[in-house]
Amino acid sequence: MADPAVPLPAGAGAAEREALGPRGPKPRHVFSRRNIFLYGTLFVVAVYYLLPLYVMVVTSLKGMPEIRLGNIFSPPLEITFEPWVKAWATACTGLNCDGLSRGFWNSVRITVPSVLLSIAIASVNGYALANWRFKGADTFFVILIVGAFIPYQVMIYPIVIILREIGLYGSLSGLVIVHSIFGMPILTLLFRNYFASMPEELFRAARVDGAGFWGIFLRIMAPMSLPIFVVAIILQVTGIWNDFLFGVVYTRPDTYPMTVQLNNIVNSVQGVKEYNVNMAATILTGLVPLIVYFISGKLFVRGIAAGAVKG
Amino acid sequence: MSKSERPNPLFRNLNAKVASIPMILTASVVFVGGTLWTVLYSFTNSKLLPRLNFVGLDQYYRLWATPRWLVSIENLLIYGAISLVFSLVIGFLLAALLDQKIRFEDTFRTIFLYPFALSFIVTGLVWQWLLNPDFGIQHVVRDLGWTSFSFDPLYNSSIVIYGISIAALWQGTGLIMCLMLAGLRGIDEDIWKAARVDGIPMWKTYLFIVIPMMRPVFITTLVIIASGIVKVYDLVVAQTSGGPGIASEVPAKYVYDYMFFAQNLGQGFAASTMMLLSVVIVIVPWAYLEFGGKKRG
Known about the structure:
Order of helices and strands of chain B: HHHHHHHHHHHHHH
CATH superfamily of the largest domain in chain B: MetI-like
Number of domains of chain A: 2
CATH architecture of the largest domain in chain A: Orthogonal Bundle
Shape of chain B: globular
Shape of chain A: flat
CATH architecture of the largest domain in chain B: Orthogonal Bundle
Helix content of chain A: 55-70%
Distance between the termini of chain B: 25 Å
CATH class of the largest domain in chain B: Mainly Alpha
Strand content of chain A: under 5%
Number of domains of chain B: 2
Low-confidence stretches of chain B: none
Order of helices and strands of chain A: HHHHHHHHHHHHHHH
CATH topology of the largest domain in chain A: MetI-like fold
CATH superfamily of the largest domain in chain A: MetI-like
Oligomer: heterodimer
Low-confidence stretches of chain A: 1-15
Largest sheet of chain B: none
């Protein structure tokens, strides 16, 4: 009976219990009305949020006859992976019948260089803005941030002309440049604020030791700011992978990114609708950002909290 | 700092200037130049190619006389009102629920936020499937015995924009919840203790103490939601392609279609300038409220 928090043994007499009086913390009722309401609500909402994902997966594993007869919420009676194979390798968009794999590799070839280029530009730029200010730098920075709020539709056509002039319209490199341009405001802001929050002495000490602009950046600033680089990568990978508008404007059918190709497969008016193939294709397209999301966890939240400014 | 003789001020701090070239080009050529270019050409009668053939406000008169544009604007207003109200209310309520020191908070947060990782295209296609009248929710409910049940927002032109809003809310409320949760965590624990000591009921504490304290969070969130509303495009393309008929058209789609399909550049420019104007109307008051009192910059 040393620990008052330990409940009395069941055999203890009523008198004995009364003598001791209530002790320890007030017992928590697991099934209190408050808890039932709280967890009940959260559970229902969670089901609502998960339902579309569940329906996608279930539908993609059914055969077409089963879909026509059944219920979208019922699990597949006979699991088939054929829709997945078809979505990946043989689904048709226009003249091409090599499935989403084409769009997937296009998206990879767009996303990887775009992420690298945009982060390289923005990190150096943010560093220059934080530590090597020059006259007029802040003016351009303010324009850049205000520009993030301009609807893309306003700038789409001038960019078409610029890209056409330099001969990159319709190519993947053109799209990479576009992604780097529109990723610049938020990324520059992210890096500038991060570098500005680093101790000034660090920078001064390196200056005294004779390190220059690039030396300080490559040897001191960049290695010390890995978390912000990870946040930037998460932000850019999901953002660029999910882009549709720029893909559809600045590429041609054989270089369409995955989102554009997916939309063309699912919303094509010709042929019989194969809902299971469509859902498999949809999951395949959503897979990359979902994996990034589930792996990155808290960093993703940080990334979107920063990237949310982009809207 | 440096001891150099400063020969030419242009070459001082040269590396930083070189590093800022992309920013300078983007800000001046693309953002300022591109915007001015589009506004300028919205006063011309450019068709297939941009031409400086000024026709005054003709494109704007034509724009506001086009039924499709009027439908787009009406849809944008409905969609905007729904997104604003519901994502704020639902986002805040979910954040408040998650803030009750519950177990599995991370699990719930992960579930509420995952749709935000998906693109609008994926979101639109999933909800197109769920709302399909022959297979989706309507079909399932009818199979349960309620044969007159009708829920086909994507095929009913009078409510199609609500069907799109459902998908948008599913995708976006997780983000609002996260921002709100961060705001709630920023509230001092002592405020809650004081409210409890005074015997103020929890809902009153939220309504009259906590929410007013979260004003900056709400304003930021509002700006984020608002700038997202104007840009809505891919979701509509994926879910309905603007249909049935023109019932779910939105301004961003109008711009794209006139620029790249109808080969009526002037209309596209005029419409995009109107979009810019609507953003300015939202942003300027906000910027004034946020930075008006302080020094600008």
